[in-house]
Amino acid sequence: GWTSYASLLIIKSHSNLTRGVSKEVKKPSHLLACSFIALGVLVAFFLLIQDCPWTYYVYCLLPIPIWYAVLREFRVIQDFVLSLLTFPPSQLVARLFIFTLGIEVLVLSFFYRYTLTAGLVAFACWPFITQL
Asked: Which segments constitute the GPI ethanolamine phosphate transferase 1 C-terminal domain (predicted)?
């Protein structure tokens, strides 16, 4: 959830996807808010029945408002996906491959620290090989 929310903040701050959205469309529906409140009550009730410690409540209830914040901006996510589909297919596949490779290097660096060096060197070379 937090990764999705961080990605959403990056998309909103570094793209023009939110400029064409009116204020009326940005308001979340009451159904979405009520469903997340009901989900939170249901999870809290389940944890209460199980007689869990308070740390379980924090761990289980914290993702609910984060996912609500992500799904509240569903229009931005939808516009982002539509803008991704405007890329030529070969360019889209290449970018998705590089993105996946970067995530795999990051995960692999948890087990083999030297792979983090390769990922950081590639990240340092990135401004020289792009048009930014």
From this structure: 1-129
Q: What is the pLDDT of residues 78-96, one digit of tens each?
A: 888 888 888 888 888 888 8
* Token pair 């469903």 in the structure block, residue: 35
Radius of gyration (Cα) for the chain, nearest Å?
20
| pTM, rounded to two decimals | 0.64
Pairwise CA distance, residues 70 & 81, whole Å:
15
Q: Give the whole-angstrom CA distance, residue 108 versus residue 116.
A: 8
Show me where the domains of the chain are located: 29-86, 88-131
Amino acid present at 87: F
- Examine the pLDDT at 40 and tell me if it is beyond 90: yes
The pairs formed by 22-29 with CB atoms below 8 angstroms and a separation of 24 or more are 25/75, 26/75, 28/72
Residue entry with tokens 């048009």: 131
Angle, in degrees to the nearest 10, between helices 54-61 and 30-50: 150
Contact of 6 with 69, CB cutoff 8 Å: no
DSSP string computed for 58-78: HHHHTHHHHHHHHHHTHHHHH
